[in-house]
UniProtKB/TrEMBL annotation:
SUPFAM superfamilies xref list: N-terminal nucleophile aminohydrolases (Ntn hydrolases) (SSF56235)
Class of enzymatic activity (EC top level): oxidoreductase
PANTHER family the UniProt entry points to: FAD NADPH DEHYDROGENASE/OXIDOREDUCTASE (PTHR11938), GLUTAMATE SYNTHASE (NADH) (PTHR11938:SF133)
InterPro entries linked to this entry: ET-N_metabolism_enzyme (IPR050711), GATase_2_dom (IPR017932), Ntn_hydrolases_N (IPR029055)
Protein name: Glutamate synthase [NADPH] large chain
The organism of origin for this protein: hydrothermal vent metagenome
Pathway: Amino-acid biosynthesis
EC identifiers of the protein: 1.4.1.13
Length: 228
């Protein structure tokens, strides 16, 4: 969701320009590059230990945002994609992104179509969408009222695109899609947001408290979900 949707307008003594992030950040890695689910669990534990860096309002179950960035869990995603007829290329030759989309079905489909066309225009191959499992019941009332649809998009590297240029293409796709949607007449375009789009890492995040993240996204609790 964009900042206009989240931050209230200037009023009284309140100045939106004074808003700034005060995030707590932690890092957990395997220095030998060995992927495991334990790394993910440790990362979540670090996040939960920084619960005090987050904030809530009158709705104590609505946080100001929490998330985790991990190495793409290739085998986990490969298994899930196989079940929905998405065939992934070798690691490094495809990208995955977590995308927030409108609840309104017509608007969601329009944005998906714009995204897919932009991928093809940039010489890359759109592979498909995956619905991201999530448990809305853990959200506070405020967060639930603004909750978007959550999907992962899969994009294969184009035949004429080098691995180095692939990341540049993904950046261009991200910017062009954002520009097209921001200029469109889509009613719920404020829901649209690309959390990440990369051949290396993926982000899971939302308007959550730190302690809600792993429950909200069951992917993160699966033993096959691994990172280094």
């Amino acid at each position: 969701m964009n900042s206009d949707f989240i931050i209230p307008p200037k009023q009284g003594l309140y100045e939106p320009i004074t808003e700034h992030d005060s995030c707590g950040v932690g890092f957990v890695v395997d220095i030998k590059g060995n992927s495991s689910h334990q790394i993910v669990r440790d990362g979540i534990q670090v996040l939960e230990n920084m619960e005090h860096r987050g904030a809530t309002g009158f709705d104590a179950e609505t946080g100001d945002g929490a998330g985790i960035m991990v190495q793409i869990p290739d085998q986990f995603l490969r298994d899930r994609c196989e079940k929905i007829d998405i065939e992934l290329p070798e690691p490094g030759n495809y990208a995955v992104g977590l995308v927030f989309l409108p609840k309104l079905v017509e608007d969601k489909h329009r944005i998906e179509g714009m995204f897919e066309r932009t991928v093809n225009e940039e010489g890359q191959k759109f592979l498909g969408w995956r619905d991201v499992p999530h448990y809305s019941d853990v959200l506070g009332q405020t967060a639930r009222s603004a909750e978007p649809e959550l999907k992962q998009i899969f994009i294969a590297r184009g035949k004429n695109t080098t691995p180095k240029d692939f990341e540049k293409k993904l950046y261009a796709i991200r910017k062009k899609v954002w520009l097209k949607i921001s200029k469109s007449d889509i009613q719920q375009k404020h829901y649209f947001y690309i959390c990440s789009l990369s051949p290396n890492v993926i982000v899971y995040k939302g308007q959550l408290r730190a302690i809600q993240l792993s429950t909200y996204f069951p992917d993160l609790s699966d033993l096959e979900f691994k990172s280094a």
